[in-house]
Amino acid sequence: MKISSRINKTTNTGIGFHRSILASQSVHPHTSMDLQLSDRSLLKLSATFFNLIFTICCSIFFLSSCSVSKQISKQAEQLLLKDSIINTGHIGISIYEPATNKYWYTYDATKYFVPASNVKLFSLYAGMKYLGDSLIGLRYQQKQNELIIYPTGDPTFLHPDFKQQPVFDFLNKSNHINYSSPHFADALGFGWAWDDYMDAYMVQRSEFPVYGNLANVFTNGDTINIIPKNISLKIEKQNENNRDNKENILSRKWDSNDLTLTTASTPLPKKNYEIPLVSDYNKIVEFLADTLHQKISLTNNNATDSIKNTEKKLHIIYSQPADSLFKPMMYNSDNFFAEQTLLMAGNEHIGYMNDEAIIDTLLKTDLKDIPQKPRWVDGSGLSRYNLFTPQSFVYLLNKMKNEFGMERLKVILPTGGSGTFKNYYQKDSGFIYAKTGSLSNHIAISGFLLTKNGKWIIFSILTNQFQGSATKVRRAEEKFLEGIREKY
Known about the structure:
By secondary structure, this protein is α+β, with helices and mostly antiparallel strands. The chain has helices spanning 2-27, 31-81, 120-130, 166-172, 281-292, 322-331, 335-349, 355-364, 390-404, 406-412, 470-487, and strands spanning 90-97, 102-107, 134-143, 146-150, 177-180, 214-220, 223-227, 233-237, 249-252, 259-263, 271-276, 296-299, 315-321, 432-439, 442-450, 456-464.
């Protein structure tokens, strides 16, 4: 009996399982509901499982991000924040990965710093946005026998670095030229150091630059040549007190283009001297007349709104590819090119040359989403009145990458071992593209870095008010960025 009972139980179990299968085929009407409930349970279980996996992945990513942030923080602490020179001043750091829209590391990244020549990145943006592929070198209007020319701020006219001169070729074949004036008056930037007026890095801005707004004096023995030729040059011998001085001294008064060359007792060596010129529009007309060997007249035909006024039917002469200006501007940190780029962008975008007006327009339109609104006062960064945050530079660089493309920026920005990086980041050539900045006790670097794991990051490091060697600070920042490239 016991055995039979077991057999029956086994048989019944088998039959019961078989019937449950049949029941799923509508033999028992209530079992369909049972199956639906089973499906819902399965869906709930699946959703719970996927949520768990998602949570785990997020946790891993979060922990990984925290780990990266902590590692970079430790690296920054050792190499930068505890540096004996840097910690006499202030530093702001922002490291951002655009692919994930995540900041890897920040330190005082929303505080304001004097950015020096990093301001040129903002001028570059204005130029790339509004100057097109080619620079407009001249606008003109032909009226019977009269040619009226309207300046555009192009700094390449008769500049020695630009061999092709289509504007000069056009004007050289023209007669009865009338210069429309004036268009711009602020030759010196807001907050520039007044006593640097003799230094070639502080060239005066103008509406129609000629020869790069520099006086070039070439000496070779007793032979002295000067460009522009109509510049007055007075030659003096050094007095009794300076007989031991073997250097020649070229000077001018701050408000005059009359030059004085004080010569040493020995014959003049072969040398080239450069001094910024006073560049008001009357002087510009004199330079043009001297260069073109014809009289240039002034006209009151004001072109403040002529760029937008189609009734005047202004013609255009293009001078140079835009990037042929932008590249030396960034590679050499050329202050003059940066200032003129901002003025030209204003001329094209708002119809006149005014750095304050174009800056205000850009900040209210194209750059309205900038995280911290800067105090932006010039195109070159010569002014210590400029105040920007590291996060704002990261924002701008990301915007430039998205609008103009990384490939174009890689041509314009210097890389390791080139331009202002000539002695830096040499083993990272082709992996870093950035802009440096330097004023006494202030340095900056902002740009792009490709890590060895193939990740592009955008960074900005602004260091202010430190006491000590700027070279040592740059080397510390170089080591910090190279460490990020190696590890991530």
